[in-house]
Please model this.
Amino acid sequence: MNERSDDELVAGFQDGDETCFNELVYRYKNMLYQYIKAMVRDESAAEDIFQEVFLSFYRNMKQYRPQGKFKNYLFTSARNRVLNFFRDKKEMFSLDDTDENGNPYLHEQLESGEAQPLETMELAELGRRIRQASLRLSIKQREILYLKQYMTFQEAAQLLQRPLGSLLADHHRAVQKMQKLLREEA
Amino acid sequence: MNEQCKDVSLYFYGELDAQRAASFEKHLSSCPQCRKDLAFLRQVQTALLPSAAPEKAVERVLRRPAVGWWRQMWKPVLSACCAVFLVCVFWASVSSQRGLTDERVEWVAYVSAEADAEFNSFAADLAVFEEEF
Model:
């Protein structure tokens, strides 16, 4: 069976089929949560924003006009809430890589006590170091680095309302900076 | 940095057109930095694969506790209340006018009756006067 497009699901939901809403949640939950968490670097705030984004869509779904840009709508909604979070916290330009309690922020902890092959462990360790390095980037660089995982540069430029060239330059700088951070760490 | 080095991200994510992609591949064979960047982008992509969103947050969204019936229904309910209010105001205004009219009719009837009595009394007096003179 063909997977239904976002617009078909939105239209179904607007016609009263609640399962369409659930399907949209399942389709976008992981990438949306990852983006929000990487931006705010606070799990509890990330969960709140994550819920607000979907519930706001649920409440205002009658006003939404499907135009093949549901993903853009969802990430714009998340981004606005992330900006509000920074505005409230006045941390817009913080590069601190610790959480609200001052502990080093770990994107994801390795499972301890589980025996893993050396290669897998090395890869997992490298992944963890990359994720930590990504959280030490500036907000602009971090944002494009994560958004790029879920959309094309063109879509990201549209979402952020920035010229494609400057976005590509920021992405390039983000990659260079991460390589530098990993080198320094080593 | 070669001008073509700037295309490394677009090439990695498959966003170059065929001609530029072919040109970049030629460049790649002679640029160790781009090969290194390409390998790193691959590692970044793997490292940043979305992990699962917390179940409790997803559950809360799927249960939609924040959505009360009033959020969906407040507009129709408010419209209905306004309509009922307007009907009440209209009805009150019409009935008060009707009351006023009834009072006026009663007053006119009373005045007419008084005038009739006055006229009859005057007519009787006139008849007595004509008989006597």
Remarks:
- The mean pLDDT of chain B is 84.
